[in-house]
Amino acid sequence: MVPPQLAAGHLMTLQAAILTQHDKARLIAPALNCLDWQLTEIRSFDTDALGSFSGERPRIMTPYECALRKAAIAADLSGADIGIGSEGSFSPGPYGLGTFNLELLCCVNVAAGWAVTGRFYGPSLAQQWHISAPEQLQQALEKVAAGQFLLLQQGSIVVKGLSSAEAMQQALPLLAKGDVSLSYDLRAHLSPERQGHIVKAADDLLQRLMSLCPRCHTPGFWPDKAVPGLPCEACDSATGLTLEKHACCQHCQFSAVQRVTQRYANPQYCQECNP
Ligand SMILES: [Zn+2]
Ligand SMILES: [Zn+2]
Q1: Is residue 274 part of a domain?
Q2: How far away, in angstroms, is 228 Cα from ligand 1 center?
Q3: What confidence tier does 53 reach under pLDDT thresholds 50, 70, 90?
Q4: How many domains does the chain divide into?
Q5: DSSP-derived secondary structure for 41-81
Q6: 241 CA distance to ligand 2 middle (Å)
Q7: Same domain, yes or no: 25 and 157
Q8: Distance from Cα 206 to the centre of ligand 1, integer Å
Q9: Residue with more model confidence, 55 or 260
Q10: Which residues are within 5 Å of ligand 1 (an ion), measured at CB?
């Protein structure tokens, strides 16, 4: 259902362009369907120029800066009202466990002066194997998720976009010469898991877009600034747990405070009771 403010035309029936070389429009279009945007893909810009997954070109911007830059370039090149930029990154998970994927989808309206970013953050199956024998290769390939493409590396030789069968074929002659490294090719069009995460980021983007500032109706009014200080249940001291969340309008600076539903923190999080 479309909220009344949106029906009034604030966000509806705009032209939007997404900067991608990896067929992302089809992933995000369903989530944004209710906005009735006309979504086109801009493929004339080499997004790898802003840094690439396999590390041939270093990334100098944060993932957020990169998504915002891509969104601005999409708006600029297309002349559309809305530009969309997508950026995925992988890093060690909480406590250094596993690999986590952060997907950002930034949506910018240059004329109206706002940017809203949807996100997904969660565990990824992405793996890397160091392989020195054909049996190890076989074992590694059995663990690869269905539909996931691979990247093979030996010294300066890098072969990307391989199916499991192709990886097997290409790796065997290389193994005769020495060890190889096998890893997930994490480009979006080659990774079903990433595609699912981008769809979730698009859902999040829609929620944030539809959350309008109560005062000026600018989209992206979202309680994403956590303020710690939830009192300890035993001694009432402020803990590091979130006490309230602040939303601040990027256009008129109107702000609102949302208290978390939890009233007290477990003493295990208290510096006084459990130092
Ligand atoms: Zn506002
Ligand atoms: Zn305490």
Answers
A1: no
A2: 25
A3: low
A4: 3
A5: EE-SS-GGGG--TTSSS---S-HHHHHHHHHHHHHHHH--S
A6: 12
A7: no
A8: 18
A9: 260
A10: 213, 215-216, 218, 249, 251-252, 254
Question: Which amino acid is present at 223?
Answer: P
Q: Ligand 1 center to residue 248 CA distance, Å? A: 8
* Residue-level pLDDT at 8: 39
CA of residue 228 to ligand 2 center, whole Å: 15
**Residue given tokens 């269905």 in the structure block:** 146
Domain interval for residue 63: 4-125+191-210
User: What spacing in Å lies between the alpha carbon of 253 and ligand 1's midpoint?
Assistant: 6
Q: Do both 179 and 195 map to the same domain? A: no
pLDDT for 1: 45
- What's the pLDDT band for 78 if we cut at 50, 70, 90? very high
**Ligand approaching nearest to the C-alpha of 249:** 1
* Packed helices 164-175 and 134-143: angle between N→C axes, nearest 10 degrees: 160
The rounded Å distance from CA 246 to ligand 1 centre is 14
Q: Is residue 219 part of a domain?
A: no
pLDDT of residue 47: 72
How far CA 260 is from CA of 160, 222, 226, in Å, comes to: 46, 14, 10
Judgement on whether residues 139 and 201 belong to the same structural domain of the protein: no
